[in-house]
Amino acid sequence: MIKPGDRILVDIFENERFVDVIGTSKPWLSGRGEAPSLCRRCEVAWLDVPDHGSIGSSAFPSRVFKGMRMSGHMGDARITTRNLRILGVDKEENLLVVEGSVPGANGGYIQINKAKKPPRERRGFAGSATVDPLKAAKRAAKKG
User: Fold this and answer.
1) What does the pLDDT look like over 85-103, one tens digit per residue?
2) In Å, how far are 51, 60, 68, 82, 88 from 63, measured between CA atoms?
3) Could you give the count of Cα atoms lying within 13 Å of 14 in the half-sphere of its Cβ?
4) What are the phi and psi torsion angles at 95 (to 5°)?
5) What does pTM read for this prediction?
6) Preceding amide of 61 cis, omega within 30
């Protein structure tokens, strides 16, 4: 069992082929920034804040389309990327090389787990040997 203060090294992933990576997504913020909290009488504070202007068309289609990017808070959520293939384990440098995108900003903290549901082994996927269908059919006929 792991106790507080124990060192966890990448050698625990030596015999694994896939991992799940958990991280915090990058926040995506839009809007006028700090402007609404500033004094409205102070005209100088509003000069350096970008203004949105009009968001829709005037004559056609006379509406705002769904999905229009507007102010709000997106991101900064817990994201799990499943079944990232392990390309290499470097024990000396304690590095784990995975193929695919890892959630979060550069320099952020992530959690790496062994894959809960690794992909099934099938022909031509996940490094399994390619199976000749004719030979497989003959073997199945002999067994049956």
Assistant:
1) 999 999 999 999 999 999 9
2) 20, 8, 11, 40, 52
3) 8
4) -115, 145
5) 0.58
6) yes
The amino acid occupying position 94 is: N
pLDDT of residue 26: 85
Phi, psi angles (nearest 5°) of residue 67: 85, 10
Burial of 56 (0-12, 13-18, 19+ CB in 10 A): exposed
CB-based contact 83:20 (threshold 8 Å):
yes
**Does the pLDDT of residue 132 top 80, yes or no?**
no
- Contact status, residue 19 vs residue 86, Cβ threshold 8 Å: yes
CA distance 15 to 75: 34
